[in-house]
Design a protein that fits this description.
Largest sheet: 5 strands, antiparallel
Order of helices and strands: HHHEEHEEEEE
Strand order of the largest sheet: 6-5-4-3-7
Structural class: alpha+beta
Shape: rod-shaped
Radius of gyration: 38 Å
Strand content: 15-25%
Number of domains: 2
Number of strands: 7
Length: about 170
């Protein structure tokens, strides 16, 4: 009689509990994070004590390491070095045509115009730098004394001085 009522329908052979035990898989849509969200969530797990989080792709970028310059080994006498592959003569000069601009040019240090209009890039002297004087003169630093004075190679300067105080310089490049 039940078969007649059900119209020949045969019930499933599994129990209701067995039917419920089967996993139901619901696919979740993939959500792409914005750059701002990736940065905020630090998705690449950057250690922010040694890395920056890049603003363009949120990956880790190593922070620069500051290394202080040690001044412990300041020489007690002049430090000499060839600044242009042997152009320094026995007395520390370059035969370049008789003027300071040609000396600078011989060492690859040149800017357009007169030295009084040249720009400086640092106030700290270094061997091989062009020293721009407070007056219309340029020279190449060949040494630095322990008291901070600089020794230069130059031409066409009144007198034969090669050692100068940094107070006489407006800067270096």
């Amino acid at each position: 009689m039940i078969e007649l009522l059900l119209g020949g329908f045969e019930p499933p052979k599994q129990t209701l509990i067995e039917l419920v035990k089967e996993p139901i898989i619901i696919e979740q849509p993939v959500i792409e994070l914005t750059i701002e969200e990736k940065i905020e969530q630090n998705v690449f797990n950057c250690d922010e004590s040694i890395y920056y989080i890049r603003a363009d792709d949120a990956t880790c970028l190593a922070k620069p390491v500051y290394v202080p310059i040690s001044r412990e080994n300041t020489p007690q006498t002049i430090v000499r070095a060839s600044v242009s592959g042997g152009l320094i003569g026995s007395y520390g000069s370059v035969r370049s045509g008789g003027n300071c601009v040609n000396t600078a040019r011989a060492h690859g240090k040149i800017q357009p115009g007169n030295p009084s209009t040249w720009s400086v890039s640092t106030r700290t002297p270094f061997i091989g730098a062009a020293a721009l004087f407070n007056y219309n003169h340029v020279a190449i630093i060949s040494g630095i004394w322990d008291n901070g004075d600089i020794e230069v190679i130059h031409e066409n300067f009144s007198g034969s001085r090669t050692r100068f105080s940094q107070a006489e310089m407006r800067g270096y490049f």
